[in-house]
UniProtKB/TrEMBL annotation:
GO terms for molecular function: ATP binding. Residues 198-363 form the DUF4143 domain. Residues 2-131 form the AAA domain. This is ATP-binding protein. It comes from Compostibacter hankyongensis. It comes from the Bacteria.
Amino acid sequence: MVIRGARQVGKTTVVRQFSQEYPQFIYLNLELPEDREPFEHFSDFKTLLQTLFFRKNILLKDLAHTLIFIDEIQEVPGALQQLRYFYEETPDLSVIAAGSMLESLFNPDINFPVGRVEYLVIHPASFPEFLGATGEKAAQQQLHTVPLPSFAHSTLLKLFRTYCLIGGMPEIVAHYASHRDLTALASIYESLLVSYLDDVEKYATNPAQTEYIRHAIRSSFAEAGKRIKFHGFGHSSYRSREMGEALRSLEKALLIHLIYPQTSPVLPLQPDLNKAPRLQVLDTGMLNYFVGIQQELLGTSDLDNIYHGRVIEHIVGQELLARQYSALHGLSFWVREKSAASAEVDYLYRYKEKLVPLEVKSGATGTLRSLMAFMDLAPHNMALRFYSGEVRISTITTPAKKKCYLLNLPYYLVSEIEDYIKWFEDEINKK
């Protein structure tokens, strides 16, 4: 298994925790010369395996109860190819590899052994994970209750506001859980941002590439939540090709996501790469810190009022991504196909054979014009809206007089979306 994820999202920590399930555990960090050397001087797999066990003073036996964790595997390109031998020669042995993908982008010698490796992606902590980390056991239990009882709403909304403020980076969540001091988090945000910028300095192949990617990182937080153009990105003089390459590099490193729109209301999902993508960054808490809106978030009664609604839309996208562990899955949204049209639905959620539109917006249901435009074209009658209110189902009539059902969910229930759509479907069938 290869675990992907941006720096500092907890790849090493989660594998170390998982290793407690095994009687024998071998940890290798290929940034360390003594751990790197056996892979660099690889001659045959049998010798490599014996060397790894010998150097860690572990007996080469009972492979079915042994876990090997190869961290920072991108430091030795050949080590990735050697994963195939673990798969073929020792099928009972559990092997996990992880690394910061940003470094490997600039090394053309790195290739993954196709068909012999399973890939999983780790994202920043989700809201349920935040509740668990901060000891909010009662809130976490109620979060999973479908439908949610009214008495839990105000508490969960308040907790979600805090989660939306600080984000899901593990070091940030852990510090807040221990100290409950929001002002003390600034230095950690700074450290995270600097670490990403320093990565570029270290691994870019030339000074120009360094400058493009550093600019892309800095500007991405200010542009997050918007549909962007590569040319002149971040108020720069850089051309489309320069910024396109820089942003796609950051996307491969999982620091950002470029979300291209779907123009069809039905499956399959086929994003239109000729249209402007919307930009999603790694973590909403880092976005808030970078653009300086944390104080606004502290005092708001409705997250939809902050930063033109972009923060709450962004955290909903982050929560949707946190539910996914496959590197092949991402986010999608819808725009009307006509060039002059302005209809745009925030997200699309795939449920069975349906593409269910998902809007992030408070206010009266009559203001959901784009969602209604989508429903006029969709071959079903189910739509979702995340807002600051409580769980309820309402009936809406589109401009074309189509009767549809709208599931209104509070922001904090994004993680439970699958269970709620099933409940929603059952409730509609009762009508």
